[in-house]
Amino acid sequence: MAWRLLIVFGLVLGWATIAQAACTGASPTWTSTADYASVNTCVTNATAGDTVNVQAGSATWSSTLSISKALILSGSGVGQTILTANVATMISLSASSDISLRITGFEFQLGVMNNGRQAIFVSGPGGGAFAWTQLRLDHLSITGGSQAIEVDGRVWGLIDHVTFTNTYSGVFVSGDNNLAWALTIAAGTANALFIEDSSFILNASSVSVVDAEVYVQEGASVVSRYNIFDSTAFTAPGFLTLMYNHHGNQDYVTTCPLTTHFRGQPIFESYNNTARAYRLGGGQFEGYRGGSVIVHDETFETTITGEETIYLSEEEQWQGAFFSPLRTVWPSQDQVTNSFFWNNTYNGTPMTTAALGGVGAVLAIRSNSSTMVQEDRDFFMHAPAATGGKSTYTGTRNGGSDATPTTGDCGSMTFSGSGANAYYPYTTYTYPHPLQGLSGGRPPATSRPAVIDRPGVLDRPAAPSRPAVP
User: Fold this and answer.
1) Over its length of 470 residues, how does the chain's per-residue pLDDT go in tens digits?
2) What is d(CA 327, CA 348) in angstroms, rounded to the nearest whole number?
3) Nearest-angstrom CA–CA distance, 378 and 339
4) Strand partners of residue 273
5) Which of 299, 278, 272, 290 is nearest to 331 (CA)?
6) Residues contacting 312, CB < 8 A, separation 6+
7) Cα–Cα distance, 2 to 402 (Å, whole number)
8) Which residues touch 234 (CB under 8 Å, ≥6 apart)?
9) Are 289 and 247 in contact (CB under 8 A)?
10) Angle at the Cα of 64 from the Cα atoms of 58 and 69, rounded to 5 degrees
11) Domain boundaries in the chain?
12) Which residues contact 222 (CB under 8 A, 6 or more apart)?
């Protein structure tokens, strides 16, 4: 009898040891504590298609977790599994094929704003091998840091139900630079990185400069929809682009074929978002310097009236630091073109087109871009229509210009006022995104983020005079 009791006692001890182990389980389901070493062990042992569940708890990570296989990494939820950064990048994702990979249910604490830290870095494919279409990052909370989520390459996945608080840039996207311009540029398709049902909150009054919560460049295609951008508690007077900063080309290219160049983005869609700001301080809600832009059914609110809302610019006409000599003849390289704005309001008033350089309940165009960015040629204040014409790329390099000073370029653009607009007839892509139905993980999906509880945007005290536009 005694030896039987010893065996039972030993088995109990063994089970207790297993239960307390940092990484337990076997394919297809693993369970880990929140510390880096344990999560890394589970991820390393997991095979493609497995799920790694991370228990509730707090941990500081001093190393980067690298994942390059199909799996679900699921925390126990925001406020439950809390990871603090003591490293530049907490999670690095990559893929050699279009794998299904999901990160969900974590809270990331990155520290103070703009400190060089990020929660997730995505290294997507480049050069035309494939597009990564099965990546989902969802039900996360990220506070502080610089580029909280950085996405590079041709990634046509989904970021949803993420709360970004005091991030210098919530989502920073660099696309598949050269190839993106050679592909068909289409709207309302799945061929984009979707950001939806998320919240971007700024309330760190000690920081005076923010450079857009969604920053896009180098051939990225992005759709932003059903998000909330709220900086009503951000009262610093410095430069602030709240929602989007979309790069154009960085310098002239006159060689053909194109090899390396810092380019703009081919197309961007933004709709059904709500943006609130105490002030913009010389900045704007949305800033575009290149590509096709489709913006509709947006709600903009500011406490301080007379602020710019949507800003279109062509730097080749005025930015002497990068372009010399300046361009004087349309078109520019990678410039704003085939863009549409409709059903947008500013403080409850339908948005119209301002006089050049104007501000207020308007779509404001920088006055020194007037030659390059014109209504009813480069942008339209209505949805894509059956009449009105469009711009068309010519030559072997989309987005080029053979106008002075790049007469040696190998592509250009022409405009015809007859026929349908580009992207007509336009319909939005399926909402919610089909990847929201990706199985596995713990946090349930919701239809859209809750409205942020805040003081009324129109009842704050007056702010100091705004600084000069940089």
Assistant:
1) 444 443 333 333 333 333 345 999 999 999 999 999 999 999 999 999 999 999 999 999 999 999 999 999 999 999 999 999 999 999 999 999 999 999 999 999 999 999 999 999 999 998 878 999 999 999 999 999 999 999 999 999 999 999 999 999 999 999 987 777 778 889 999 999 999 999 999 998 766 677 799 999 988 999 999 999 999 998 876 667 899 998 888 888 777 765 566 778 889 999 999 999 988 877 789 999 999 999 999 999 988 876 778 888 899 999 999 899 999 999 998 899 999 999 999 888 888 886 555 555 567 766 578 889 999 999 999 999 999 999 998 876 667 888 999 887 778 899 999 999 999 999 999 999 999 986 544 433 333 333 333 322 222 223 333 233 33
2) 38
3) 6
4) none
5) 290
6) 288, 289, 336, 339, 363, 365, 366, 369, 373, 378, 379
7) 93
8) 202, 203, 204, 205, 210, 240, 277, 278
9) yes
10) 105
11) 58-437
12) 173, 192, 193, 194, 195, 214, 216, 265, 268, 269
Cut 0.70: pTM above it? yes
Instruction: Classify 63 as helix, strand or coil.
Output: coil
Q: Tokens representing 284? A: 């704007």
Are 44 and 52 in contact by the 8 Å Cβ rule? The answer is: no
Q: CA–CA separation, 422 vs 390, rounded Å?
A: 5
Show Cβ contacts of residue 116 under 8 Å, excluding neighbours closer than 6 positions. 88, 145, 146
Q: Provide the token pair at 138.
A: 């969802």
How many helices (DSSP H) and strands (DSSP E) are in the chain?
3, 36
Residues 393, 399 contacting (CB under 8 angstroms): yes
> Closest by alpha carbon to 364, among 294, 423, 422, 283?
283
Minimal CA–CA distance to 149: which of 139, 135, 164? 164
